[in-house]
Amino acid sequence: FLTRYQPGKPWxxxxxxxxxxxxxxxxxEEGLSLQRPAGVAVDEEGTVxxxxxxxxxxxxxxxxRIDPDSExxxxxxxxxxxxxxxxYLPQTHRLxxxxxxxxxxxxRFTFIDPATGKITEDPPVIQDSGSVCSWLTDGGDWVYGxxxxxxxxxxxxxxxxxxxxxxxEMNMGDNCNHCLILGPDGRIWxxxx
Length: 193
Prior knowledge:
About 0% of the residues lie in helices and about 50% in strands. The chain has no helices and 17 strands. The chain has strands at about 1-5, 20-25, 35-40, 50-55, 60-65, 75-80, 80-90, 95-100, 105-110, 120, 125, 130-135, 140-145, 150-155, 160-165, 180, 190. The strands form five sheets. Strands 7, 8, 9, 10 and 11 form a five-stranded antiparallel sheet that branches. A four-stranded antiparallel sheet has the order 3-4-5-6, with no helix packed on it. Strands 12-13-14-15 form a four-stranded antiparallel sheet, with no helix packed on it. It is globular and about 50 Å long. The chain starts with a strand and ends with a strand.
């Protein structure tokens, strides 16, 4: 369930939107459910985005956009694909998700318009298994990521549309989900398994 909790307000358990926490619905309303939450992002206006993938027979992925003022949910479903981590890029006003399409052996860097849910660009960038399980942006040209399958930290240039730096196979494990953060001094911090 997509859920909203307001810490400063009293706990109120019921099935209305006045509840705290309140359930705003599921990510996918028809067919088999999206079972695995994978990404989260927020833009400069406070709009919240979640990505999830299927499983248990569901071969779809989806993104939900939640308006912070009205709590209205917009859902976009993408068939026959697997979305993993997601980041909002303020420098281009787009969402970036790690995507692997059914039948392909490449990881796509899929850019999505946050107003329409339309895929604006989706190049296959990493010719390997796995996914990008963590993203980080500093608002500049480079977007940093962790490729989980090989535990590779990389920098992707938005201008050059390619990986420009990488530290491959760091032998740190391959479950580095949502593990990168930019410190106040510009250093990248991370947690690995």
